[in-house]
Amino acid sequence: MIEIGPGLGMLLFDVLALWPLIRIFRRVGRSPYLALLVFVPVIGLVLVILALGFGRWPRLPPLPKPQRKARRVVVSP
């Protein structure tokens, strides 16, 4: 059986997490190079989570209010 040490496991996780983090940083409007902080052992992932968790995210435009249909008024003769 193949034995994976903790260093190789962390490297594998970092490589797999890199592409989604780059996409998230682009959508947030930050530099995608911040995703490379993941490769700094232990503190890098913490910094990435703090940057995403406490950073300012772009504000989406408000959803349009649904238009209400006019009610029919039935007049009895």
Descriptive tags:
77 residues, 2 helices
SSE blueprint:
Layout: H1 6-28, H2 43-54
Proportion in β-strands: under 5%
Biggest pleated-sheet summary: none
Query: What overall form do the CA principal axes indicate?
Result: elongated
What letter string, H or E per element, gives the SSE order?
HH
Question: Overview of this structure, please?
Answer:
- The protein is mainly alpha-helical and 77 residues long.
- The protein has a domain at 6-54.
- The protein has 2 helices and no strands.
- The protein has helices at 6-28, 43-54.
- The model has no long low-confidence stretch (mean pLDDT 84).
Brief digest:
This protein has 77 residues and is mostly helical. Helix content is 45%, strand content 0%.
